[in-house]
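Postdoc handover notes: sequence design on the structure in folder B. Input tokens:
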């Protein structure tokens, strides 16, 4: 009981200091990123892949689902269709069962086949290395393109902004924007270009392990002394709750 009381007193004291201390507008970007990296030295892309084609497909499949779920589905998919030329010849009804555990699997199956056909027709089955060429492929936007360019060639055209990066960059005071493209622009201005690739992995790791959406663990966070949202982070960087519709009487 003594340890629990001591812990509660310590937590209360920290929160008091947070309230008394002057309100910080922004955590210092480079210093904070370095400290977060020290907390998550193994930060990396958690989508399993063996090459650019597999990562491109896995990233497309990751929309509206978790990397864990994608990693469960892709082994059978890639064993059946190991490259773009094989997938381009597939029928949608044959691809769907391989990714049926994922949300929107029918649309994703259609997108994968269209993506493979475009790779074969425009790039001889190879994944292009430029943002301009990548975003012209079916189902590929800036986020997906930056993932592939950063992970495979270590040359992203910007910072990957997913739900974790968006939430944490808002909590750290690095952006007030809610649009991913505008958030990316803000982050690119704050962080040196050589850090763009790792920045997203570090923030994603932190978002999955410490700075959770609903219950951020500010007590364990190693940057709570510079974070302007510390100990009230659950109110920052989350989508507003849906308003229930009331039927007309």
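Designed sequence:
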């Amino acid at each position: 009981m003594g340890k629990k009381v001591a812990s509660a007193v310590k937590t209360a004291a920290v929160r008091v200091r947070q309230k008394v201390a002057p309100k910080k507008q922004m955590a210092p970007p480079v210093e904070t990123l370095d400290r977060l990296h020290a907390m998550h030295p193994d930060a990396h892309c958690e989508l399993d892949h063996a090459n650019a084609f597999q990562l491109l497909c896995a990233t497309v499949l990751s929309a509206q689902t978790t990397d864990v779920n994608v990693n469960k589905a892709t082994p059978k998919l890639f064993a059946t269709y190991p490259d773009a030329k094989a997938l381009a010849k597939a029928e949608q009804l044959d691809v769907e069962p391989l990714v049926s555990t994922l949300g929107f699997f029918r649309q994703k199956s259609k997108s994968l086949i269209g993506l493979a056909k475009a790779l074969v027709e425009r790039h001889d089955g190879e994944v292009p290395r430029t943002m301009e060429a990548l975003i012209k492929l079916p189902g590929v936007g800036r986020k997906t393109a930056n993932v592939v360019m950063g992970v495979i060639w270590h040359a992203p055209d910007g910072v990957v902004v997913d739900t974790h990066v968006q939430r944490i960059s808002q909590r750290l005071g690095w952006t007030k924007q809610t649009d991913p493209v505008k958030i990316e622009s803000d982050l690119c201005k704050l962080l040196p270009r050589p850090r763009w690739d790792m920045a997203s992995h570090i923030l994603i790791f932190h978002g999955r392990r410490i700075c959770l959406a609903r219950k951020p663990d500010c007590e364990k966070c190693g940057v709570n002394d510079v974070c302007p949202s510390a100990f009230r982070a659950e109110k920052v960087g989350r989508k507003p709750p849906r308003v229930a519709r009331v039927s007309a009487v």
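Context for whoever picks this up: DSSP finds twelve helices and no strands in the chain. Don't rerun without checking with the PI first.
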